[in-house]
Amino acid sequence: MGRLQNDEFLKQISSLLEKNAGKSSIYITQKRLSHDIEAEIGTEPFDDIQKDVKPTVFKSITSTKQYPVLVRVTDGDKDKKKKVKLSTVVRPEDLDKFWLQYTNILKAGFPGLKKKSKKKKAKRT
């Protein structure tokens, strides 16, 4: 399945969590997209560079650029035909709104998660 729009992705996650009902694992991955995928198409590796060429090391410059986030969810089914894969790209300007909706859906859809109970520390005498 291709990448979904953010709203459609959230609807699909909630239906996946309802169908799952805490019976099996759900795998969630999130990562920053640091480059434009379309810009890479057509580029070829440098095969004609001599082996004794040393790369120039540049000082790292702190970047203030904001990057989109890739969010993926799968049900982890071993049968590839039944496996559900969902993904979306969230733009930086939409991230706060998306994250709020996303976390609310996940909290409601994971019935097996419980808050940790705080243990009282024993007093030393």
From TrEMBL:
Highest taxon of the lineage: Eukaryota
GO cellular component: signal recognition particle, endoplasmic reticulum targeting
SUPFAM superfamilies linked: Signal recognition particle alu RNA binding heterodimer, SRP9/14
Molecular-function GO term, any one: 7S RNA binding
Keyword tags: Cytoplasm, Ribonucleoprotein, RNA-binding, Signal recognition particle
GO terms of biological process kind: SRP-dependent cotranslational protein targeting to membrane
Keyword rRNA-binding: no
Pfam families linked to this entry: SRP14
Subunit relationships: Component of a fungal signal recognition particle (SRP) complex that consists of a 7SL RNA molecule (scR1) and at least six protein subunits: SRP72, SRP68, SRP54, SEC65, SRP21 and SRP14.
Family: Belongs to the SRP14 family.
Function: Component of the signal recognition particle (SRP) complex, a ribonucleoprotein complex that mediates the cotranslational targeting of secretory and membrane proteins to the endoplasmic reticulum (ER).
PANTHER family: SIGNAL RECOGNITION PARTICLE 14 KD PROTEIN
UniProt protein name: Signal recognition particle subunit SRP14
Gene source species: Brettanomyces naardenensis (Yeast)
Organism phylogeny: Eukaryota, Fungi, Dikarya, Ascomycota, Saccharomycotina
